[in-house]
Design goal:
The protein is of the alpha/beta class. It contains eight helices and twelve strands. The longest helix is centred in the middle third of the chain and has 24 residues, at about 105-130. The protein binds zinc ion. Zinc ion (ZN) binds next to loops.
């Protein structure tokens, strides 16, 4: 429940939430919002008279809450980008219309192809957890794929700021986009989607384990500042390099037929082993 402003003097932590609505500024006008639900990160880039929202959460209720939070930072019209077609990053898209939604060509195709399947699996999972309200919201959400499509790179002008959307190769899925924002000095902020995961092993269900390390090699080469993972705490280039090493170890263990020697838990390694290895 949202805290009402007339609840009396807030404690310091609440005051922070009231002012920032959960946003953390990690570069000039570049914000990340880390959600309790799924430990998911969304991004916000604010320019002159325009802003960009990175990922839209799992249903219209969560998206509306995100929109309220965006409006505590900026009144400007938004453009939206989806890092990839997994429900937690794009099922909220319809709440942001009629704004343009960007994504990779593969993201639009994957969401059109798997959206209903993802919905059914998520609704079943939420009902099993006794979370009827969220299950009902996911049941009715319109699946609304991006229509502004990126093949390899697209530079957006967000109120005078260049924001590059880049496909760096297959990894977590066959269509992950990263969002690169220039900040003051020579720095950048990179929103990496689920190519990078902090606080839990990366998710391999739709992954390409043989190609993921090279994709992270490219991400590592371009990172000059904060790197925002799809889930978990904000990291940096060194973390990207370390996760690349872990993914190489996954690949080596699976190719050797010894997944139990990999760097992650048995369930994660089993999924990795089920995916294409060449
Ligand atoms: Zn994902």
């Amino acid at each position: 429940m949202r805290r009402r402003r007339d609840d009396g003097p807030p404690r310091p932590a609440d005051a922070d939430l009231l002012v920032n609505a959960g946003w953390q500024e990690i570069g000039d006008g570049v914000f990340v919002r880390r959600h309790r639900s799924l430990d998911l990160n969304c991004g916000l880039v604010v320019g002159e008279g325009a802003c960009l929202v990175v990922d839209t959460r799992s249903h219209l209720g969560e998206a509306a809450e995100l929109i309220d939070a965006v409006r505590t930072i900026t009144p400007h019209p938004w453009t939206v980008v989806n890092t990839h077609a997994h429900y937690d990053h794009c099922f909220g898209n319809a709440a942001f219309r009629p704004a343009p939604v960007w994504g990779s060509r593969g993201c639009a195709a994957a969401l059109a192809a798997t959206g209903e399947q993802q919905r059914a699996a998520l609704v079943a999972e939420l009902r099993a957890d006794g979370n009827q309200r969220a299950a009902d919201q996911v049941t009715v959400v319109p699946i609304d794929p991006p229509e502004c499509l990126v093949d390899d790179v697209q530079v957006l002008d967000i109120g005078g700021r260049d924001v590059a959307l880049r496909f760096l190769g297959r990894g977590h899925t066959d269509h992950d986009l990263v969002v690169e924002v220039e900040t003051s000095g020579d720095g950048t902020v990179v929103f990496a989607g689920d190519l990078i995961e902090e606080g839990a092993p990366p998710a391999f269900e739709d992954s390409f384990p043989a190609e993921w390390p090279a994709t992270l090699g490219r991400l590592h080469a371009m990172a000059r500042g904060p790197v925002v993972p799809g889930h978990g705490a904000v990291v940096d280039a060194a973390f990207v390099g370390a996760q690349r090493e872990e993914l190489l170890a996954v690949l080596a263990a699976v190719r050797a037929g010894r997944p139990h020697e990999g760097p992650y838990d048995a369930a994660t390694m089993r999924v990795a082993a089920s995916r294409p290895l060449r």
